[in-house]
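Bench log, entry 3. Co-assembly request; chain sequences pasted below exactly as received.
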Amino acid sequence: STFAFSSPFNNNSSTLRRLLSSLAILEQRDGKLNHGSLSAITAAKKLGGSIHGFVAGSNIKPVAEEAAKVEGVEKIIAVDNAAYDKGLPENFAPLLVENIKKGGYTHIIAGHTAFGKSLLPRVAALLDSQQISDITAIENENTFVRPIYAGNAIATVESSDLVKVITIRGTAFPAAEAQGGSATIEDGVDPNVEISVEWVSEDLAKSDRPDLATAGKVVSGGRGLKSKEDFDRIMLPLADALGAAVGASRAAVDSGYADNSLQVGQTGKVVAPQLYLAVGISGAIQHLAGMKDSKVIAAINKDAEAPIFQVADVGLVGDLFEKVPELTEKLKSS
Ligand code: FAD
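Structure output for the full assembly:
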């Protein structure tokens, strides 16, 4: 499909430079704004220019009002329609495209979350733009930095597309301040497209512990835990003593010790907490890709040669079945 720009965003004129304007896609669940998605606003601020936020779903008003308070946002575009509650990309993509065309934005920014990853490439395709994924820095309005090969190389990419469609790595852009702004709220356009996809149900892992992706402290267990029973017996009290979220290596997830949603790494979540404690994890590059930007990395492993110790700031060589309960007791009594 073609994308016609309206004046003053006319690209045919070399004298008319398009004004920089970003649309930050904000996530919500059950009428609550996801504060992690405010990273998109931080990225938009780095670009400069005007910043609008986008929210959609049923009973969207309270979400829009909450988003309007975010520092640095001029306008919230809100679409009230239950069809967008679950963020199905099949109808969310055409919805966004209509609103992007109307607003004439130069940059579309969303988090590199499950939602952003499935949505923005579709938006990019509809706009005939090249999707720019998982950026960790912005050099200027056309130039972005992104890790490739599981973080083993850093690519600097330049885009000449009229509309840059970008997902950002949350750990590289802190969430914008939720207070201090006073944006206006405007109804967005709703194309109300018929879709052949239907939301059936979801089965969410519930936890009272901090959210893995945004927690300040994470304790992760690996294959060294040996079984699900041992994983729970050893790791959960440690997490609670520290007030930490629980993570896991892929080996631990694949062996059924931990839920899929806890996987840290290249094919799991990318985290960058203040403290990351790896227990019985060898430190394969695919695991490091998900945690090596943590501020302090600690590791407990019985093998002094384990590669995790090459990235660890502090390490303890020993049997986790002995050391972790001891550590947990000390934390509890301190
Ligand atoms: P192992 O490598 O088996 O290490 C277990 C460690 O526990 C060892 O170092 C051992 O010394 C230690 N240990 C054992 N017993 C004890 C004990 N009693 N006390 C103390 N220490 C003990 N992996 C991820 O984690 N996340 C990913 O997202 C991911 N994505 C991948 C994507 C691809 C395409 C591929 C090919 C692989 C991916 N992997 C990923 C897998 C990765 O390569 C490793 O296989 C995995 O990380 C190993 O997990 P582990 O460290 O728990 O297990």
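Confidence is low (pLDDT under 50) at residues 1-15. Residues 89-103 form the longest helix (15 residues).
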